[in-house]
Design goal:
A three-stranded antiparallel β-sheet has the order 1-2-3. Helix content is 47%, strand content 12%. Helix 1 packs antiparallel against helix 2 and helix 2 runs antiparallel to helix 3. The protein contains three helices and three strands, in the order ββαααβ. The radius of gyration is 15 Å and the shape is elongated. The protein is of the alpha+beta class.
């Protein structure tokens, strides 16, 4: 939730459960988990954009661009049986990411 000096606010979040895929063998080292990486990059993009001064609308847009890039990569490589499910999970999360309130709100 971003709150402005004039009392206005914005909320960025998911309209339903955030789902993700991961490799159980990497549970203690998530940064090395290639299955979880797309989900981490997608969700962390929102915070990165906001911390760099971007507004809510830009944060949502960039995060969705990251998700789509990962969906295309996942579907084109289809290196394992879980590729289709990971792509579905990314699309689910992408569709549910939303901003309520002032879309132009930033951390400035």
């Amino acid at each position: 939730r971003l709150v402005g000096d004039n009392g206005g606010s914005s909320y960025i979040g998911y309209q339903d459960e955030f789902v993700f895929s991961y490799d159980p063998s990497c549970a203690t080292k998530p940064l090395g988990d290639s299955r979880a990486r797309p989900f981490m990059e997608f969700s962390n993009t929102v915070a990165r954009v906001l911390l760099k001064g971007g507004d809510c609308a830009t944060a949502i847009q960039r995060a969705k661009e990251v998700a789509m890039r990962h969906v295309r990569t996942t579907l084109s490589s289809a290196s394992d049986a879980g590729s289709l499910q990971r792509a579905k999970n990314l699309l689910w999360d992408m569709q549910l990411l939303t901003c309520h309130g002032d879309q132009a709100r930033s951390l400035k």
